[in-house]
Amino acid sequence: MKTLFSLLTACALSSALFAQTSLTTAVDFTVTDLDGNAHTLSEYLDADKYVCIDFFAYWCGPCAAHAPYFTEVYHMYGCNAGDVIFLSMEYEGTTEQTHDFEVANAGENPAPAISGQDGGGLQVHGDYAIQAYPTFILIDPEWNIVEQDIWPMDVSILDGVLQSYGLQQMECSTSDVVLHEDVAIAAYPVPADHSLNVAAPAGAELVLFDMVGREALAIKAASDRTVLNVSELAEGSYLLRSTFEGHVMTQKVAIRH
After folding, report:
1. What residue ranges do the domains of the chain occupy?
2. At a CB cut-off of 8 Å and minimum separation 6, what does 256 contact?
C-alpha cells in the first residue's frame, strides 16, 4: 500500500488506484542532494545512462519500509558508477527532515537523496505528477519513462526490472561512495527508560524528534555528557539530532517504559 497525498490530507490507498506518473516522456531537472552535489537529468541521459528515481515523502510509512530495498539495489548496480543512476526524490521535507529519514530508514551509504524544500524535489514531484508514495520509475537514455511505476517493489523485483533492460550489476567501489561520517552520535542506553545519556560537545543543540518529524524535546548541552529526561515521552522510536559548529550528528533511539 502506498501513501496518497492531497492538498490538505494524506491517506493510504491501494496502488491500483493511484500508482504511477502519467508521463511517458521525462522532464529535465537539476536538483541538489543532501551532500550539496548537483544532479541534472539531461547530463545523465546524454551520457547514455538510465535513471531510476524513488519518489518518497519523509512522513510516509511505506516509503520507510521500501527505502532499504532501494539502497541495496543501488549497491548492486555500482553506486551510480555503472549504467544506471539512482536518486531518492523527497516531496516536501527540509534538508534536516530528509536527512533524518535517510539515517533512520535507508541504511548505510544510500543513493543520493534530494529534499523537497531545499534540494528541488518538490518541483520534480510536481513536474512528474506523482500521486502516490512511494513511486519508483525508470527513465531510459532516450527520455522515455519506460517504467512508470515499479510496484510492488523489493530487491528481486527491482533487480529483475533493471536486468530486463540489459543493465548489468557491478561492484560498488568504496571510492564511489560518500561516507556520512557525521551521522552517528553516542547515546545510551537504547532503548531508554527514564533517562537518555548523550555524549556530545558542550554547546551542542540536542533535539529529539518522533518519527514524523515532530519535536519532542530540545536542550543545549552544558557539558560533554548530557542526561535527557524522557520519562514523560511516549514509547516508540525517535531521532536524536546534535548540531554543533555546523556539523549535524544523528542517531536513532528508542524509548521503552
Report:
1. 2-176, 186-255
2. 191, 192, 193, 235
